[in-house]
Each structure stands twice: as structure tokens, then as C-alpha cells.
Design brief:
single chain, about 150 residues, mainly alpha, 6 helices, elongated
Length: about 150
């Protein structure tokens, strides 16, 4: 096998996932190739270091802070969803009242009425979405105090 193919098999060899034939080829190549020997030794060393590592257990206070922050973020997201839905309903209702005369006119075709209501719904969703995006981006704007 060529050097590049063997190099790709070294990790599988290290993990014991090769059949006997490929395993022997890799072992033979490792005896002859210093670069691959070095890579294999480094792989073993990395595994040794990883096996010795231990995760630090967070303190009770850290867990409490984490749980509170998750709850607060979830609560805020739900709040923003309700606020957005409420704003959409109010804006849609306001827009409907504004063009109510045109919609209630029996001489206007149904397609026109549906088109107006769908367009109004789209405008409401876009306005609420844009307002929310501007609010969030303003909070994180790094250059808000720099004059343009």
C-alpha cells in the first residue's frame, strides 16, 4: 500500500478496527516510516492525556446560577413570542378597522378583499419582526456611541 493510504489507516489501527491483512501492512509500514511512527506515538500520547483528564464538577452555586439563567432565557423567549403575537393582532385589527369600509363594500370583489387582508397581515408581521430585530441589534451594537 502507498504511504498516503497507510497514513489514513493509522487511526483505525490504533483503535483496533482493522482486519488482519491491513493490520500487518500498517505494522510493516510503521517499522519503516519515521513520520508514521511519530504520528502513531503522538496518537498514543494524546490518548494517554485524554484518559487522565477529569472534568471539574461545578459548584452548587454555579448550578443554581445556570438553572436560573436557563429559566430566565426561556421565560424571556416566551414573553417575546407573546408580545410579538399580541402586537401582530393589534396592528392587524387596527389596519382592518382602517380599511374596513373598503372590505365591507359589497361592490368590491372577494379577491381584492382577500388580497388586502393578506397584504395587511404581511405588513404587520414585517413591522413587528423589524422592530424586534432593531431592538435586539441596538442592545448589542458595539458602535452605537460613535457618531456617523
Amino acid at each position: 500500500m502507498k504511504h498516503e493510504k497507510i497514513k489514513k489507516l493509522i487511526s483505525l489501527y490504533h483503535d483496533g478496527e482493522l482486519d488482519e491483512q491491513k493490520k500487518k501492512r500498517v505494522e510493516q509500514h510503521l517499522k519503516e516510516c519515521r513520520d508514521c511512527q511519530k504520528e502513531f506515538v503522538e496518537m498514543k500520547q494524546l490518548e494517554d492525556v485524554m484518559n487522565k483528564m477529569e472534568l471539574k464538577k461545578p459548584s452548587k452555586e454555579a448550578w443554581e446560577t445556570y438553572e436560573a439563567s436557563v429559566y430566565n432565557r426561556l421565560e424571556r423567549k416566551v414573553g417575546w413570542i407573546f408580545l410579538s403575537i399580541g402586537a401582530m393582532i393589534l396592528l392587524f385589527f387596527g389596519g382592518y378597522k382602517l380599511i374596513e369600509g373598503l372590505i365591507k363594500d359589497p361592490g368590491s370583489p372577494l379577491v381584492l378583499k382577500i388580497g388586502i387582508l393578506v397584504a395587511l397581515a404581511g405588513v404587520v408581521i414585517l413591522v413587528v419582526s423589524l422592530a424586534r430585530e432593531q431592538l435586539f441589534s441596538y442592545k448589542s451594537e458595539r458602535y452605537k456611541e460613535i457618531e456617523k
